Each structure stands twice: as structure tokens, then as C-alpha cells.
Amino acid sequence: MLLTLTGGAGAGKTTLAAALVETAPHTPVRVLHGDDYYFRTPDRGVWAPDEAGTPRLDVGDPRSMDAERLGRDADAALATVAYVIVDGMFAHHIAPGTPHARFDVFVDLPADLRLARKIQRKCLSEGFPLDMLLRNYVEHRRDAHARHVEPVRHACDLVVDATLDPHAVAREVWSAITNRADAQSSRAPGRFIAHRGRAPAWKPCSRSPHCPRRHRRSCGWCRSR
Q1: DSSP letter (8 states) at residue 101
Q2: 3-state class (DSSP) for residue 197
């Protein structure tokens, strides 16, 4: 299953991902961090000069993320582990090429708390200039969040409160996934395919309409016939 965690910068997506790994009902679990998939060279992505004229990647724009590479890595991971968790501001944009079960989570945290966490992490811990961070937030990142991140809330399967304990939230997520699987298991046999942007649904097996199993990929019974 592909489990995506989408939310604003500082919402606690990576922290929740770690809690999900610790509380997962099945192992192993693979985590892919969206921050590792931003473009690194000015020929790809959205770049703009800073006050000194140095080009800087606009990490608040989904076009700055290498979604194709992330999708390929997710495909490879889905073939080897029970769960693949992708966290990032634009995790919901991921579209692996193979059929898969999918569950999208929006990690919700008020803007003031997200900003406070960013100040603590980048300025107090990493020494990033506070005035530059605040100016970037007011002039760019706040609007970018409203334009690119916030609308995804309504397309996700579950919205979680990131002010709560991460392990409690993780248990809420796993419970929601289990409840959905239980509800769908009562439907007609088929394979469970998730479509980006709308709720997953059961579909008849493409290999054989007589397949007696409920499965998330084309099973051995179908492939052998």
C-alpha cells in the first residue's frame, strides 16, 4: 500500500512517518521523503534570484519536485514491502505507474505553529537568518501554501490533527486504513486500485472475471490463466 502524508512545511509529516513505521501492523515499511526529490540544478524546477542575485529553488512550488523520479522509486519499493510511506508538501502528487492500494493523509497544523516550528528548526538549530525566513514566509511561502498545499486537504482520505501525540495520530491512520479495508472486503471480488485525486475503488480483475480472490495486484491465479 502507498500511504502519502501531505501538509505544510513544519506540520510534522516526517515525525508522523516515523511514528507510522513504529506502529505499522505489517513490516517492513519503506519511507520516501519528498525533500530528497527536489531538483538541484537551475535547468529544472522553479528558480528565482535572492537579494544577492543568487538563484534559489522555490521549494514551495510543486514543479520544483522531481515527481517522476519519486514515482519510479515508489514503484520499486511497492514491489518489495507491505507499505510505502511518502511524506512531503506535495506527496499527494505522486503517481506510481503500477496499480496499488493507496491512502492519502493531510497533516493539519495551524499556520502559527508551523511557522514557530520552522523558526525553531532553521533559525535556532541551524542558524538561518530569522529576518530572511520571515520575509520569505510573508512574501512567498504563505501564498504558496494556500495555492498548492491547502487545496489538497479536500482530496485526501483523512485529515489528522498534528497538535496531538504523533503515535496517537499514527494509530488513527492505521485504524482508518483497516476500517476501509474491512468495508471493501465485503464487496464483490476484485482488485483494489487507487486513483490519484479520488477515492480508491474495487474493480473486476482485468486478467479474469472469475478470479475468486480479493487482491491489490494481479495475483498468481490470474497470471497463470
Answers
A1: -
A2: coil
Please give the DSSP secondary-structure letter assigned to residue 215: B
Instruction: Say which residues have a Cβ less than 8 Å from residue 45's Cβ, sequence separation at least 6.
Output: 38, 39, 57, 58, 61, 63, 64, 65
What's the grid cell of residue 208?
Answer: 479474469
- Helix, strand, coil shares of the chain, percent, nearest 5, are 45, 20, 35
Tell me the CA distances in angstroms from 189 to 118, 183, 213, 216, one per residue in order.
47, 13, 6, 11
Name the burial class of residue 80, with classes exposed (0-12), middle (13-18) and buried (19+) by CB atoms within 10 angstroms of its CB.
exposed
Q: Is the dihedral of CA 39, 42, 44, 48 positive or negative?
A: positive
Contact 14, 89 (CB under 8 A): no
d(CA 191, CA 202): 6
pLDDT per residue as tens digits for the range 148-206: 999 999 999 999 999 999 999 999 999 999 998 888 776 655 444 444 444 444 344 44
pLDDT (tens digit per residue) in 51-74: 777 888 888 899 999 999 999 999
User: What is the CB-side half-sphere exposure of residue 147 using CA atoms within 13 A?
Assistant: 9
Beta bridge partners of 65: 38
CA distance 41 to 39: 6
CA distance 213 to 38: 40
**85 has which bridge partners?**
3, 31
The SS3 call for residue 4 is strand
What the block records as the C-alpha cell of 218 is 494481479
